[in-house]
Amino acid sequence: MSIENLKNSLPEYAKDQKLNIGTLTRSTELSEQQLWGTLVASAAATRNDTVFSEISEEAKEHLSEEAYEAALGAATVMAMNNVAYRAKGWLGDDYTQVKFGLRMNIISKPGVEKVDFELWSLAVSTINGCEHCAVAHANTVREAGLTKEQVWESVKVAGVVQALAQAIQIEAAR
């Protein structure tokens, strides 16, 4: 199981994504842990079993068990937070001061460098379409020293992984 398997399963109309994922997996913009954690967290966020299993198997060759688990933690805590923060925004000013009231301890103790966890949270938040969370995580990683190019690299990874999931889903439904 691997990203190569994903690439080989893509139809002709998704050729750009085949090329994009090949380029991104060779990226030098992010550290190995940042890149592969972003891939795992993004794959989990797509909710596509094939994309998740293929990326996860290869990622385990590049990530420690702690980093792999933290990437999954980023995907799951952002699944919750992205819904809640978007809803707070939609519901208006009356809800800005309402206590959040949900546990998210992993954000303060992710088991990896905080900047990496925040980068993975950014990628997931972009897939989930939460502007508030994406901006907050981008600001956090920039304050921690990452460049705008590194931030954008994680967004590109998220976008391409989401596109892979869509192509795989289209083909499964055909």
UniProtKB/TrEMBL annotation:
Domain of life according to the entry: Bacteria
Top EC group: oxidoreductase
Gene Ontology molecular function: disulfide oxidoreductase activity; hydroperoxide reductase activity; peroxiredoxin activity
Active-site residues annotated for this sequence: 130 (proton donor), 133 (cysteine sulfenic acid (-soh) intermediate)
Keywords for this protein: Antioxidant, Disulfide bond, Oxidoreductase, Peroxidase, Redox-active center
EC number in record: 1.11.1.28
One GO term of the biological process aspect: cell redox homeostasis
The UniProt record lists the keyword Amino-acid biosynthesis: no
Annotated catalysed reactions: N(6)-[(R)-dihydrolipoyl]-L-lysyl-[lipoyl-carrier protein] + a hydroperoxide = N(6)-[(R)-lipoyl]-L-lysyl-[lipoyl-carrier protein] + an alcohol + H2O
Disulfide bonds: 130-133
All copies of domain Carboxymuconolactone decarboxylase-like, residue ranges: 101-167
InterPro entries: AhpD (IPR004674), AhpD-like (IPR029032), AhpD_core (IPR004675), CMD-like (IPR003779)
Function: Antioxidant protein with alkyl hydroperoxidase activity. Required for the reduction of the AhpC active site cysteine residues and for the regeneration of the AhpC enzyme activity.
Oligomer and partners: Homotrimer.
Stated family: Belongs to the AhpD family.
Listed PANTHER family: ALKYL HYDROPEROXIDE REDUCTASE AHPD
The protein, known as: Alkyl hydroperoxide reductase AhpD
Organism field: Corynebacterium halotolerans YIM 70093 = DSM 44683
